[in-house]
Amino acid sequence: MASNNDSLVLDIGSRSQTNLLSNKLPTILEDSFLLEQLEKLALKVNLSDAAFSNTKDTIATTKTNTQTGCKDKYNDYISKLDDSIKGYEQVLKQTQVVNDQLSVSIRQFNDISKDSEKFIEFTNSLFQDYTQTSQLTEMIPKYLQYFEPLDTIMRRLNYASSSNIVRRDSFKNLLSNVEASLIFLEEHKDFKEGDSYRIRFKQCLIRSSELIAHYLNNNLLKNVSTEITDRLKTVNINDPLSIGTRDALVYNKFASISEIFYQQLVEITKNIKNTKLKRYHDELSSILNDCLNNYFSIRQNLMEPIITARLEEIENSEKDNDIVTFIQNSRLYFQQVCLDEYRLFIKFFPIKICRQSFDNRILRFCSPLYYKCDNKILRETDISLLCNSVTLFSHYFEFEENSDEYLKQFNEVKFDQVFGPILQKLQQRLILRVQQYIDNNIANYKPTIDSFMISNRKNQLSGSKDFDFENDSIIKSFLENSNADNYLNFLQSNNVENVTLESTENDNLLESEETQKQNKDEKLKFITSYYPPLVKASLLLSKIYSMMNSIVFDDLAHHIVHYCIISLKNAYTIVQNSSNIAGSNSLDMDLAYMKNLLLLRTQVEHFNIEYIVPETYLDFSAIESFFTYLRKGAKSSNSGTSVLKLARELVPKVVNNMVDARHELIQELRNIIKNFTEVATEDIVGNCFEILEAENSKNLVTKNIKVRTNVEEKLPRIRSQILNFIRDQEIVGHLIVAIQEVIVQSYENFYENVTEKVEANLIDKTQISELMYPDVFADLTENVCNKLLSKSIDCV
């Protein structure tokens, strides 16, 4: 700004002294441009020449006066301007001085600012050091309190003369210091020699916990156990009057130390629950397990004589040595014992930590029961008793483990785990006995003509050689069942027998002797109306259903149905080969076969047997062939190659088959239905559809009338014959319709054959007009069948 002002003032000054003084300013009228503009303006306002002349003179006069006044003013202006230039120059000099001083001040201020920042940084560092030092000074006493008591604690623990020290308040303070020090060291792992101190404090923790455990085991449990044992020696366990005294000793007296025991044990368990001391949980859990083992060992020693005496009492009280009664009474007794032990246990140990230990150790507590039950189960051969025994434990396995219902049911003792070993033994024994029963009564059953032709013995109620009513536990249990509800449901589900039985609504109500006899007679009719292996198989499946794992049951059921089909086919073949059977007898045989297959089908559907099961066995046929070869006189002097070849051939082969009882059963049903419809059709039609070479019109008409008569007469008789074996109206209707379709198809073939012979001039054309058209014959048979199907199955 100063330089610009200086240049402007100097420029004005220089111009005023040179140009303006030497050259005069032009007047207004001397300006040609201005004069030209004035002339134009005069023309526009139409001024006259005179006016213009006057104006010109006036202007000239004014010009002269103006020039003189402007010069004076200009000179004054120049003079003032020079004075201002001098003032401005002085101001610029002063401003420059101030500017220089301000620049120096700014540089000094920047230096001061830098010095201030360095000072602040330095003071902050000093403050932080001071703060840390102050905090460390304050924390050193607090930190030292976790280390200073170590020597005193170790000395006191190492030289503890008695475990009774754990009952003192000073010991609890000591243990609290140890725990606090270990937690502190876990949180401050960067301390120098921290691991060394941690190990020493850990030794103090373990040592103090061992002192507590020693006090609990030797001073409390052992003393009270010895006292109770001594007093029990004076009590007669077998005396009913002493039961109250005995229970008071083994439970009430034992529970008298529970409060002290629990308070001391909490000092161990609280460290096991502390997540900050997780590193020491294994050692502490081992000490706790020693206490648990010692507790259960003492409890088992106290209760074992009582339990053994009670089991012997239960066993001796059985008149018939019934396994069901023994297991039921034993189960009830041990259920109460386990509940008492649980309620006693929670007074000594915190259940949240020790629950799993109790569940595991209570199984050892029940070992006398397992031993007694194992002996009885291994000697038991009655399938019904084994099933009844399994039923005693069914309500323990109604819900899935860890479900809400399961936790509510077993909120105290998990009885499914307590009685699980017994149930497993029972099921294993049951499976073994079922397999033997299948082999003896189904797979290896030797059928006879009488055993299959059930129509000959349908009204027999007892005395059949095929049924051992006294020794067969399955049949005996079925006949002696006073409550007929299950049996009635079983028959209704089969839809093969129209049987009604009276039954009571309450299982505990006794039926009258007359009703029992009537029910037994109905059951005997049912038994004797079927092929014996099928009856036994059906009753067996009904008995073992839901008694074992579903996979095992499906496997057994597949093989049972498979063996039943094989046995039934063998019996059917024996009857077929025994004599020439034709007509109604052949129909009876097919219907009997069909009836038994329908019973099997009902079992397959009722028990949902629909999965294929593998069957693996060893094939020893090569060995049998080898001995046959030797018997035929083969020499033993063979070459080495032949011996090796023979050895390879003698190795038993593993054969893997798939047993699909459902498919096999359906196939057999299709075959027998096809065979039945063919035999029934042949019985109705006879030789009416045979066309002889010398056939005349009279014979054809006679055969035609005979076929119609046979349909109207024999088809109802066949229906009645079917109802003697099958009472399911739907199945009866299907059989009648199948027979109708075969008869109609046979007649259509007959009519077509006659037509071909007429066209070939083998038969007179007039003869075909006497025959019924196939449609007419089909309507006839359909009307007959509709009348039969509309009748109730009771209308025979």
What does this protein structure show overall?
This protein is mainly α and 796 residues long. The protein folds into six domains: 146 residues, no CATH class; 138 residues; 127 residues, no CATH class; 149 residues, no CATH class; 47 residues, no CATH class; 105 residues. It has 30 helices and two strands. Strands 1-2 form a two-stranded antiparallel ribbon. Helix 5 runs antiparallel to helix 6, helix 6 packs antiparallel against helix 8 and helix 6 packs parallel to helix 9. The chain is flat and about 175 Å long. 24% of the residues are buried. The N terminus is likely disordered.
Summarize this, please?
The chain has 796 residues and is an all-alpha fold.
List the helices and strands and how they pair.
Layout: H1 2-22, H2 32-44, H3 49-147, H4 150-158, H5 169-187, H6 194-232, H7 243-255, H8 258-273, H9 281-317, H10 323-348, H11 351-365, H12 367-379, H13 383-391, H14 404-409, H15 415-418, H16 420-443, H17 449-452, H18 473-480, H19 485-494, H20 513-528, H21 532-544, H22 550-578, H23 584-606, E1 613-619, H24 621-631, H25 640-650, E2 653-659, H26 661-685, H27 697-723, H28 729-759, H29 765-768, H30 774-790
Antiparallel strand pairs: 1-2
Helix pairs in contact: 1-3, 4-6, 5-6, 6-7, 6-8, 6-9, 8-9, 9-11, 10-12, 10-13, 12-16, 13-16, 16-21, 16-22, 21-22, 22-23, 22-26, 23-26, 26-27, 26-28, 27-30, 28-30
